[in-house]
């Protein structure tokens, strides 16, 4: 064992047999310190981890020079693990470990030792600190904390291409022995991959690994400590290596020639064929480019790749015609879009194939020579005038006859006709450019066997003629101030014309012959399609005349020229100093144009006649609609109608709906009137000796039903007996049953019921008297 001597009554630390770590000596003379080896540590014990013995593990011994072996000194231990892990014999100073220690949990323990007097427990030495270090053993295997691994490497990579780096860690002490020195090796994955023993770098070990042959490899990597020697511990991890694709396979067509059929009626941009191309690569390395390199369909067809399947799609660029050409031959080429220059030596990354396209004949509708035609017609054209001709032909080889017609949805007013055989279009009605200047008409061309219809559009423009006279541009309201001077312009007028001459409008203004000689106003043509109205005198007064009417003749410049007379109303007003009208009269006089007194009288007479006719018509309609009812005050005895139908008697239970009689919410509509064709009162057949109850609800209900029957035109025109199953709430009449009437003291004699015939036999039996005067019931 190694002894650490402090001297001069100092503590001595005796450790277990281990390699000497160092010595420390202290001299008492002059207090000088002499250190023989600077690197040695005097106060450190060592203890092995994971001790598995049955007895406590001896760590070391403490001894004081003061201790003479007489039992006067005891040793005390404090610090980390004192008493719980480490114990000391207070008599001898021996230190033991009572528990298994794990360096990976705690590598060292710091404790304090002291020698004390056993009798007074006073320290005989200063407290000294020392360290117990746990000595490592190889008890932890290497672990891959980031495993399992996955890696990707391009296919066809050269030998030695780095794939991934694996790292294993060992919890043992790397500064002591080889317990934490790890060596890597590959257990599975040879001969394709290898691993660097010291760095853990996984590399490719074979050239030209082909993804298309095998795309994944599972490697098992081992890490072993003790530099891989016998007895070392090991750990493993897995590495999934995936080969990524490179463009090392050229595309090629599945066949060298293809043939497809297509209908000649296919619209432009239709797909007529799909060509399958094979390429073992994937992703961007399998993207294709197609082109037509030769053939008789250049410009008619186009080939493009499908984005999802990379098939070659041949689309139609122009319309087909079986009669013109029935088949086409194309030579198409496919190539990769993304080419890897490293693999050009494998061959050309392109392929060619021949495609034959057969056109199938279909029965096509007639085709017009022009799908859109423009025609002109004058609005002065007479009915039947030829406008133009359309022409269509059957594109099929049969050349079937064609008939023409107009789509009347585009010519609702039937202005035009077309000859069904020749296609000549003519007018069917007079045309008016001012109503409709352009007609958009659709023409049908029909082939009858089978029915095929083609169509075209014609735009018929109606040209203008001078058929509208000019008129005032607006409704003028002209005011004349009483203070107006002679020669003053009081209004400037303009004109409008619905015609549209090519050279533009030119209007001429003048007064009519009747108004030319008036002494009040004159007209001046301004030569710019306007005219000015001027006063010829002054001194206009409202009390003399409040309104003047000036007839103006307007003529256009057409050929032939048209003119119209327009009347300008001029109102005399009182004006302020600025010439603004303040108050104007309401009476008017005519200069030369207007209505005569006789005409006014004739108009009034016509109006009165119309009013009289309207009144007569209204009166007659009211008489026809007068209902067959009379007021209660009128005497109806003069209007008696007799019916021989006696009704079904009390056995007739189907004539009336009893449910309706139970409805209390009835609308009173009759207004207290009775029907004209029935008597207003019906004598009761049954008279009770009791006074009638004063029940308002029951009375109102019966009264409402009676009035409803009186005004109902669909009710039968004869009297009948109705049974009311409603007595009202709290009825004083109590039961209405005939059985109850037998016990009453009624003095009414019902013997006359026997004289009314067989229909009243049951009533006579119920309410009649016997010979002895007693009531009886059958």
Automatic annotation (TrEMBL):
SUPFAM superfamilies: Cadherin-like (SSF49313)
Pfam families to which the protein is assigned, alphabetical: CADH_Y-type_LIR (PF01049), Cadherin (PF00028)
Boundaries of every Cadherin domain copy: 64-144, 145-253, 254-368, 377-472, 472-583
Superkingdom classification of source: Eukaryota
Transmembrane segments: 590-618
Keywords in alphabetical order: Calcium, Cell adhesion, Cell junction, Cell membrane, Glycoprotein, Membrane, Metal-binding, Repeat, Signal, Transmembrane, Transmembrane helix
Keyword Zinc-finger found: no
GO molecular function: beta-catenin binding; cadherin binding; calcium ion binding
Cellular localization per UniProt: Cell junction, Adherens junction; Cell membrane
Membrane topology per record: Single-pass type I membrane protein
GO cellular component: adherens junction; catenin complex
Cited PROSITE patterns: CADHERIN_1 (PS00232), CADHERIN_2 (PS50268)
Gene Ontology biological process terms in this record: adherens junction organization; calcium-dependent cell-cell adhesion via plasma membrane cell adhesion molecules; cell migration; cell morphogenesis; cell-cell adhesion mediated by cadherin; cell-cell junction assembly; homophilic cell adhesion via plasma membrane adhesion molecules; morphogenesis of an epithelium
Function: Cadherins are calcium-dependent cell adhesion proteins.
Name by which UniProt lists this protein: Cadherin domain-containing protein
Taxonomic lineage from the root: Eukaryota, Metazoa, Chordata, Craniata, Vertebrata
Gene that produces this protein: cdh7a
